[in-house]
Amino acid sequence: MNIEKRPLKKHLFICTNTREFKDSCGPKDSLSIIQSIKDRLREEGLWDEYRVTSSGCLGPCARGISAIIFPENLMITEIGPNDTEKLYQLLIT
């Protein structure tokens, strides 16, 4: 096992879980939100300081797409396709 301290300021995890016959974040287009934020971080040269990653279920799928920002441990729910800019700003500030 190798343990390293990462130089990241923040890490955003966005749920992409898909559950058959139950409400979930994946079908709500969470992957496109992730890709948009990743692209912008790379374009602005911030990829070494901030990351966004898909995650499994974070819990509140019935309340829209869910995400969590570390190290603050902020749970964000009710995310829609128009919230990409707000998420990006939460991540980099």
Task: Give a description of the structure.
With 93 residues, the chain is α+β, with helices and mostly antiparallel strands. It has two helices and four strands. Strands 2-1-3-4 form a four-stranded mixed beta sheet, covered by helices on one side. Helix 1 crosses helix 2.
Layout: helices, strands, pairs:
Blueprint: E1 10-15, H1 30-43, E2 50-55, E3 65-70, E4 74-79, H2 84-92
Helix pairs in contact: 1-2
Task: For the structure shown, list the relevant keywords.
alpha+beta, Glutaredoxin, 93 residues, 26% strand
Short description:
The protein has 93 residues and is α+β, with helices and mostly antiparallel strands. The protein has helices spanning 30-43, 84-92, and strands spanning 10-15, 50-55, 65-70, 74-79.
Mean pLDDT: 92
CATH class: Alpha Beta
What's the CATH architecture? 3-Layer(aba) Sandwich
Q: Report the radius of gyration as a whole number of Å.
A: 13 Å
CATH superfamily: Glutaredoxin
Largest beta-sheet details: 4 strands, mixed
In the sheet with the most strands, the strands line up as: 2-1-3-4
Structural class based on helices, strands and sheet pairing? alpha+beta
